[in-house]
Amino acid sequence: MAEATVETPKLDRRDFVSDQAVRWCPGCGDYAILAQTQKIFPDLGVDKEKFVFISGIGCSSRFPYYMNTYGFHTIHGRAPAIASGVKLANPELSVWVITGDGDALSIGGNHTIHLLRRNLDINVMLFNNRIYGLTKGQYSPTSELGKITKSTPMGSLDRPFNPLALALGSQAGFVARAIDRETAQLQSMIQRAHSHSGSSFIEIYQNCNIFNDGAFAPMTEKETKADNVLWLENNKPLVFGKELNKGIRLDGNVPKVVEIGDKWTTNDLLVHNETDWTIAMLLSNFTYQDEFPNPIGVFYSVDEPIYEVMLAEQIKFAKKNKGIGDMQTLLDGSDNWVVE
Amino acid sequence: MQLTGTRFTETTAIVGNDLSTLPDYPAEIRAPAGSLAGVSAFQLHFSSKDIHTPGDQPDVLVAMNPAALKVHLEDLIPGGIIITNESAFSRKNLKLAGYESNPLEDGTLDSFELYSIEMSRLVATACEDMDISPKTVERTKNMFALGILYWIYNRPLEPTINWLGVKFKKRPELIDSNIRALNAGYNYGETVEIFTTRFSVEKAPLAAGKYRNINGNFATSVGLLAASEKAKIPLFYGGYPITPASDILHTLASFRHFGVKTFQAEDEIAGISSAIGASFAGSIGVTASSGPGIALKSEAIGLAVIAELPLVIINVQRGGPSTGLPTKTEQADLFQALYGRNGEAPVPVIAAQTPGDCFYAAFEACQVAIKYRTPVFMLSDGYLANGSEPWSIPNFDDLPSIHPDFSSNENGSSFMPYARDEKTLARPWATPGTPGLEHRIGGLEKEDVTGNVSYDPENHHRMTELRAQKVANIVQDIPPTEILGAASGDLLILSWGGTYGSCRSALERLRNEDKRVSLVHLRWVNPLPKDLGEILIRFKNVLIPELNMGQLSKMIRADYLIDAQGLNHVRGRPFRAADIVTKAQKLIG
Question: pTM for the complete prediction?
Answer without folding.
Answer: 0.94
